[in-house]
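lol forgot to send this yesterday, sorry. struct tokens for the thing we talked abt
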């Protein structure tokens, strides 16, 4: 099995031949006059006589019977013919809307085909893939919507990316995404069994009995908070009584202290008045 770049170079050459045939036939059908394949062969034979230098070293075209037998060399020789010495010039590229773009596209296809035909190593194969990619861009600029539809151009762009990858220019293909885990299944619905008949009657009787017992005898948990609340209510009433007893016990001592203070004040005032001569009898 040949190397990947050699196989890619061979396919690039075949793709260039296909593109060249498509361009030549589109121009040949658009020119005035006959459009048959035989008329093309007659034109080539006439030009070989008129310009043997330009059409020299060409294979014998008399054995060609269809468009599929034409290659890039022959197609581009007709399309890029300067026709400076032609008796009846056709000027196939000059009759288009963008002659300069058409000429660049033909030259790009011919260059890519020649590079692919002589590719002997990976570097040459990569160069042929790069030139083919540039040729596809030139074809889009010159023949988009005319000789090539958008779908056909997309096909050649896809081929170009494939050639670049196989020749080691466009990188490797991205790894496929990992398999996603299966989605969890929905859990089975819960089935509830409700009592019926005699079981329902027993359950109702048990609930009624429990409610009666709860209403008749208060639980310990409910009694304890009640006692604590009663204790908190009674505590403030005891405290004022204790305060009244202590105040009554402290009343005699406080009165004696007041009397002593008044007596000391009177004696002090009298002594001061005697010193000042206000009270001579002291």
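and heres what i got for the seq, position by position
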């Amino acid at each position: 099995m040949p190397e990947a770049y050699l196989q890619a170079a061979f396919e690039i050459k075949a793709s260039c031949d296909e593109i060249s045939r498509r361009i030549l036939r589109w121009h040949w059908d658009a020119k005035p006059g006959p459009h048959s394949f035989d008329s093309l062969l007659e034109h080539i034979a006439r030009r070989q006589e008129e310009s043997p230098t330009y059409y020299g070293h060409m294979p014998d075209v008399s054995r060609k019977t269809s468009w599929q037998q034409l290659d890039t060399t022959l197609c581009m020789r007709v399309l890029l013919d300067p026709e400076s010495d032609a008796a009846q010039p056709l000027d196939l590229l000059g009759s288009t809307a963008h002659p300069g773009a058409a000429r660049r596209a033909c030259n790009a296809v011919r260059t890519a085909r020649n590079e692919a035909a002589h590719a002997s190593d990976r570097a040459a194969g990569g160069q042929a893939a790069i030139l083919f990619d540039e040729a596809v861009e030139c074809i889009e600029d010159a023949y988009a919507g005319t000789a090539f539809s958008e779908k056909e151009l997309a096909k050649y762009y896809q081929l170009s990316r494939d050639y670049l990858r196989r020749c080691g220019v466009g990188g490797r293909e991205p790894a496929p995404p990992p398999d996603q885990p299966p989605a969890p299944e929905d859990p089975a619905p819960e089935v509830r069994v409700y009592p019926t008949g005699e079981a329902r009657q027993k359950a109702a009787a048990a609930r009624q009995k429990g409610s009666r017992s709860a209403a008749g005898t208060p639980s310990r948990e409910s009694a304890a908070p009640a006692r604590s609340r009663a204790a908190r209510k009674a505590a403030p009433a005891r405290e004022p009584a204790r305060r009244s007893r202590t105040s009554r016990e402290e009343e005699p001592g406080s009165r004696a202290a007041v009397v002593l203070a008044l007596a000391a004040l009177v004696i002090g005032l009298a002594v001061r008045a005697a010193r000042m001569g206000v009270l001579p009898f002291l």
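The first helix runs from residue 4 to 30. anyway ping me if u want another try
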